[in-house]
């Protein structure tokens, strides 16, 4: 617990609506406690703006516990800011210093149009899941949970990939704007488990096809995504996605499904 | 208003089976003619929407987040209960039923809870089949841990992210149905009113949160799966957006609100660090499997925890409740923490904290095992507090966490408005006056995957539901009402921010309707809340307009509803002259400070009927009849 407070200057991207022109606006946050979370600091700035009758800075957030994936912005050009494996909502002001200037921008990617200020439309990620990011079992048809023994290592590996929160930081950090880490994580999660095997090839084909339809860029293995990922998901999942995808193009007979309009 | 729970006859263990046989079915070919509106995409909503679509109904699903996967359920950490008895430690459906009834301090319906325990078993199977990566033992079988209020190990988990993994399972099932065309998803869409036509719930009024457009959706039945109302306290472990608007608007349209004062204060949360605090973070109850709770024996002991010798520590839960110890139920553990802090023995800033110490467990099983069990929680703790819990004990304090109260529903999960069904935390049904850990996930998924999809069919098959259009007077009336109210919020143009009203309401509720309640405090709150509400409508400031993404306007609508709900909570707390579960009335306690329940006068569900903005709500009582369990003083000693 620290006693001293600090003062930071914010340069924030303000944009009134989709397709409108945006600009940076400058605000000062004083009396910032190092124990404040980054979003609490923004709350205080927004309180001030509201009291002055100006419109507060819009940003997405919900759980503020690093799990819902709603929050996310470029902080000084880095997705989710300076702390590794940490979402914006879990970043604390102790990561900054008195007198710092901090630049805030929304995720920048062709597939994520800006809605307002720091909020973007990440619907494309849902449509990638719609294309095949599931196991097709209807409610009621399952057999006993222990009927399929799963090696602890496989369950752990599946869980590592399933930890993805769908925030989109990987896309924002990628010079190509690719969603390969996101897509690979789902393919790896389900592909590690016996339950995911029957649809493995079709899933990879459909999800990768949808990713292309959504104007995400291709992956050239820069590796920026895994650095930006707040859940430290490894780029290995992309290798796995590519393997499943190529195997499927060779052997999969059925057509692909897509997640609907891009 | 008549409350008929519609509990089927016959022995407890046969009721659900018998009921499923007695309910009418919808002909498979006719199912696609029915349109069901599901509001909420958390565990309860996503599982219901996906399953209804699988059955063939047309489903529209709404959530206010930008993706259904972000519903508050995602944040659940510790686990989900099920009576699998995989550990061979004496568990059974009947034991899970009994633990839940007793945990709820005998204020829940036997038949509902028994069904919950029965269905729990299928939930795990369903989730495994979907690919939920539950923790496994080396032999490949599912692993379990223990949770409070139970002496068996029946909690299934996926590291400290159980809610996330269960929700992703339900979300993926939902997206599967979206791609098949059975579900239409409306994210960033908020329900602002219910449409009731000829006494039946037929639609909802929504606002598109991006464009601000207000529109209506009509259908044959409405399902509310909109979560709990803990954020009435401003500070809670709930996600920032969690709110009561959907259920509160439905209440105003005629749905009875049951046991509004039953709220759960969770014992293990990270203490508040400053006045700017925007939410409180839970440290999962599962930590109490290995962590020991203690405070110094004497008041005002300012030494660092490491310099307080064993003999000068008070492991008060182990001392007071030897048979359950650190795994005592939440209400009991929270009150015990408050008690030691009131005695001046609390630790950390302001003396509002107790230690949760892992030193013994680390010595016993090694740091690696502890990291494997709780790694992400320890990291989260360190990120927030900048203290390393492997080296120094965590500091924790109780915080508002869950609301057992909610809209009253019958055995079919239908509210007092025909056609309006309520599932998950939004209803009141299964947890009585205190919910046991790991049973909200169980209830949400039981409701959504298994119960509602069966019962709603009976409603659709038996109700007379003539076609209605957008031009129906009730529909237009509801839509205009919503638009007017939004405009009124924007037009106040006062001086105080929405946030400041919310904070003030929260502080008031925490002080007077929180962990310990008194008649005086509740009366004080009942005078203050209407004043605050009046001031809100005179002096709130909501910048911007209604036809754009406007987060202040969203928040303002929610706080306006909290300002009404808060009053009902206090009224309910004042009328319930007993202590039970999370509802502790200081006037009603035993000499050793335990809750004193009054089964003679209060063994009932309090269901409140809205009668108008300026007239008091009317109380209806649903007596709780216990045929199987014996009402006993709840003891964890
Ligand atoms: C930090 C934390 C940890 C927890 N851990 C556990 C645990 O380990 N085990 C356990 O059993 N329980 C746990 N719980 C409790 C449990 O997570 C919740 O009770 C449960 O997830 C609630 O699910 P739900 O589906 O009812 O609602 P929610 O998940 O809250 O979903 C509500 C949905 O409704 C939507 N919504 C709300 N209002 C509107 C509106 N007006 N218009 C449109 N959409 C709306 C939201 O967008 C959302 O999709 C925990 C709770 C918290 C806070
Ligand atoms: S707000 Fe949920 S991850 Fe940041």
Describe the model.
The complex is a heterodimer of chains A (262) and B (637). Chain A is an alpha+beta fold and 262 residues long. Chain A has 2 domains: 6-116, Roll (Ubiquitin-like (UB roll)); 122-253, Fumarate Reductase Iron-sulfur Protein, Chain B, domain 2 (Orthogonal Bundle). Chain A contains 8 helices and 7 strands; from the N terminus they run E-E-H-E-E-E-E-E-H-H-H-H-H-H-H. Chain A has helices spanning 38-51, 123-132, 152-162, 169-173, 180-191, 200-213, 224-228, 236-251; strands at 6-15, 22-32, 74-75, 78-79, 101-105, 114-116, 119-120. In chain A, the strands form 2 sheets. A 5-stranded mixed beta sheet of chain A has the order 2-1-5-3-4. Chain A has a two-stranded antiparallel ribbon with strand order 6-7. In chain A, helix 5 (180-191) crosses helix 8. The longest helix of chain A is centred in the last third of the chain and has 16 residues, at 236-251. Chain A is elongated, with a radius of gyration of 21 Å. Chain A starts with 5 loop residues before the first strand and ends in an 11-residue tail after the last helix. With 637 residues, chain B is of the alpha/beta class. Among the domains of chain B are: 266-400, Alpha-Beta Complex (Flavocytochrome C3, Chain A, domain 1), CATH 3.90.700; 476-623, Methane Monooxygenase Hydroxylase, Chain G, domain 1 (Up-down Bundle), CATH 1.20.58. Chain B has 16 helices and 21 strands. In chain B, strands 5-2-1-9-17 form a 5-stranded parallel beta sheet. In chain B, a hairpin with a 2-residue loop joins strand 6 (189-197) and strand 7. In chain B, helix 14 (519-539) runs antiparallel to helix 15 (551-575). The mean pLDDT of chain B is 96. Classes of the chains: A alpha+beta (262), B alpha/beta (637). The interface between A and B is large, with 85 and 83 residues. Residues 61-64, 66-71, 87-89, 165 of chain A line the site of FE2/S2 (inorganic) cluster.
């Amino acid at each position: 617990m620290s006693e001293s407070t600090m003062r930071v200057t914010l340069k924030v991207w303000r944009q009134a609506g989709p397709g409108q022109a945006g600009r940076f606006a400058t605000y000062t946050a004083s009396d910032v406690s190092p124990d404040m979370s980054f979003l609490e600091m923004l709350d205080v700035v927004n309180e001030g703006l509201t009291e002055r009758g100006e419109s507060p800075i819009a940003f997405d957030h919900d759980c503020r516990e690093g799990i819902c994936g709603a929050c996310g912005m470029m902080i000084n050009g880095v997705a989710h800011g300076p702390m590794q494996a940490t979402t914006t909502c879990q970043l604390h002001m102790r990561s900054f210093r008195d007198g710092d200037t901090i630049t805030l921008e929304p995720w920048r990617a062709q597939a994520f149009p800006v809605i307002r200020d720091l909020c973007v439309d990440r619907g494309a990620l849902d449509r990638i899941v719609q294309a095949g990011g599931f196991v097709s079992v209807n409610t009621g048809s399952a057999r006993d949970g222990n009927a399929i023994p799963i090696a602890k290592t496989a369950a752990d590996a599946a869980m590592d990939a399933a930890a993805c929160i769908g925030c989109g930081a990987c896309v924002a950090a990628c010079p190509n704007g690719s969603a390969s880490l996101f897509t690979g994580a789902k393919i790896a999660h389900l592909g590690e488990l016996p339950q995911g095997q029957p649809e493995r090839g079709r899933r990879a084909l459909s999800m990768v096809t949808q990713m292309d339809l959504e104007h995400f860029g291709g992956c050239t293995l820069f590796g920026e995504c895994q650095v930006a990922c707040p859940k430290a998901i490894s780029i290995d999942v992309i290798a796995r996605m590519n393997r499943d995808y190529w195997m499927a193009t060779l052997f999969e007979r059925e057509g692909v499904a897509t997640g609907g309009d891009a | 208003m008549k409350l008929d729970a519609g509990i089927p006859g016959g022995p407890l263990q046969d009721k659900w089976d018998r009921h499923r046989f007695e309910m009418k079915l919808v002909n498979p070919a006719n199912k696609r003619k029915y349109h069901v509106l599901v509001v909420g995409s958390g565990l309860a909503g996503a599982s219901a929407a996906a399953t209804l679509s699988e059955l063939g109904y047309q489903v529209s699903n709404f959530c206010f987040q930008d993706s259904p996967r972000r519903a508050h359920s995602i944040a659940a950490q510790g686990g989900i209960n099920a009576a699998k008895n995989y550990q061979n430690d004496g568990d059974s459906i009947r034991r899970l039923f009994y633990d839940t009834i007793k945990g709820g301090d005998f204020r829940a319906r036997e038949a509902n809870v028994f069904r919950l325990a029965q269905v729990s078993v299928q939930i795990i199977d369903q989730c495994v089949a979907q690919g939920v990566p539950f923790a496994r033992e080396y032999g490949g079988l599912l692993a379990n841990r223990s949770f409070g209020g139970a002496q068996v190990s029946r909690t299934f988990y996926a590291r400290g992210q159980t809610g996330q993994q269960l929700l992703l399972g339900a979300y993926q099932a939902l997206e599967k149905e979206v791609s098949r065309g059975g579900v239409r998803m409306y994210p960033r869409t908020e329900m602002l009113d219910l449409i009731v036509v000829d006494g039946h719930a037929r639609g909802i009024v929504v606002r598109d949160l991006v464009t601000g457009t207000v529109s209506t959706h009509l259908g044959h039945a409405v399902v509310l799966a909109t979560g709990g109302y803990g954020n009435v306290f401003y500070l809670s472990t709930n996600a920032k957006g969690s709110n009561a608007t959907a259920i509160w608007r439905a209440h105003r349209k005629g749905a009875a609100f049951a046991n509004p004062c039953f709220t759960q204060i969770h014992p293990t949360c990270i203490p508040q660090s400053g006045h700017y605090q925007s939410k409180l973070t839970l440290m999962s109850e599962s930590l109490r499997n290995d962590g020991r709770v203690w405070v110094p024996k004497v008041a005002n002991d300012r030494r660092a925890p490491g310099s307080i010798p064993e003999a000068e520590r008070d492991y008060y839960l182990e001392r007071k409740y030897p048979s359950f110890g650190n795994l005592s139920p939440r209400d009991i553990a929270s009150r015990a923490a408050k008690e030691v802090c009131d005695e001046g023995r609390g630790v950390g800033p302001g003396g509002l904290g107790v230690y949760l110490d892992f030193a013994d467990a680390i010595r016993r099983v090694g740091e690696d095992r502890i990291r494997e069990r709780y790694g992400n929680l320890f990291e989260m703790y360190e990120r927030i507090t900048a203290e390393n819990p492997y080296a120094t004990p965590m500091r924790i304090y109780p915080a508002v966490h869950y609301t057992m109260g909610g809209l009253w529903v019958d055995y079919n999960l239908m509210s007092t408005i025909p056609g309006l069904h309520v599932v998950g935390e939004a209803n009141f049904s299964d947890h009585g006056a205190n919910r046991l850990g790991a049973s909200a996930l169980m209830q949400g998924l039981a409701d959504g995957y298994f119960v509602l999809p069966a019962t709603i069919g009976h409603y659709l098959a038996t109700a007379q539901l003539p076609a209605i259009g957008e031009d129906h007077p009730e529909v237009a009336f509801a839509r205009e009402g919503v638009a007017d109210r939004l405009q009124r919020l924007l037009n106040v143009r006062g001086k105080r921010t929405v946030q400041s009203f919310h904070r003030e309401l929260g502080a008031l509720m925490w002080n007077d309707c929180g962990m310990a309640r008194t008649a005086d405090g509740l009366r004080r709150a009942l005078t203050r809340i209407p004043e605050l509400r009046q001031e809100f409508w005179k002096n709130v400031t909501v910048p911007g307009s209604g036809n754009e993404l406007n987060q202040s306007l969203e928040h303002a609508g929610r706080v306006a509803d909290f300002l009404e709900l808060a009053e009902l909570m206090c009224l309910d707390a004042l009328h319930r002259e007993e202590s039970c579960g999370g509802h502790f009335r200081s006037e009603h306690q035993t000499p050793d400070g335990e809750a004193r329940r009054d089964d003679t006068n209060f063994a009932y569900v309090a269901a409140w009927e809205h009668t108008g903005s300026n007239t008091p709500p009317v109380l209806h009582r649903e007596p709780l009849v216990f045929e199987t369990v014996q009402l006993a003083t709840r003891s964890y000693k």
